[in-house]
Amino acid sequence: MILAKVLGNIVATQKNSRYDNARVMLCEQITPEGESAGNTVLALDAVDAGVGDTVLIVQEGWSASTVATGKAGAAIDSAIVGVVDHIDLLEK
Fold first, then answer.
1. Which portions of the chain are predicted below pLDDT 50?
2. How far is CA 55 from CA 13, 20, 44, 46, in A?
3. Within 13 Å of residue 12, how many CA atoms lie on the same side as its CB?
4. Helix (H) or strand (E) holding 13
5. Model confidence, pTM
6. CA distance 48 to 51
7. Tens digits of residue pLDDT in 56-82
8. Sequence-distant contacts of 5-9: CB under 8 A, at least 24 apart
9. 38 alpha carbon, distance to own chain's centre
10. Which H or E element spans position 61?
11. 3-state SS, residue 46
12. 3-state SS assignment for residue 25
């Protein structure tokens, strides 16, 4: 799983019919401390995340496709599966 911050929406005028009701979000990977990890990813939103939300992204074909579209077998690499409310780090 990847911890990320939602940067914005991606608009596609044409897309596969399996994704008709799905939103594509641009997300930036972050560390548990909230710092940028320097990587961005496109992910289908399965939990109604919004811009600025901290989210959990799954990057595994079967999980991503099933969660994001409700149908197994869709060609999806990444899906937002959770909105993070709070990160509690243990002291070192």
1. none
2. 25, 22, 12, 11
3. 14
4. none
5. 0.83
6. 10
7. 998 876 566 666 666 666 677 888 999
8. 5/30, 5/34, 5/52, 5/53, 5/54, 5/55, 6/49, 6/50, 6/51, 6/52, 6/53, 6/54, 6/55, 6/80, 7/40, 7/51, 8/51, 9/51
9. 16
10. helix 61-69
11. coil
12. strand
C-alpha angle 34-36-37 in degrees, rounded to nearest 5: 115
Cα end-to-end distance, the chain, whole Å: 23
Q: Which of 20, 27, 28, 29 is nearest to 68 (CA)?
A: 20
Q: Tokens for 52, please give them.
A: 């600025």
Instruction: Let me know: does 52 contact 6? Beta carbons within 8 Å.
Output: yes
Rg (Cα) of the chain, in Å, rounded?
13
Give Cβ neighbours of residue 73 (< 8 Å, ≥ 6 apart): 65
Strand pairing partners for 12?
none
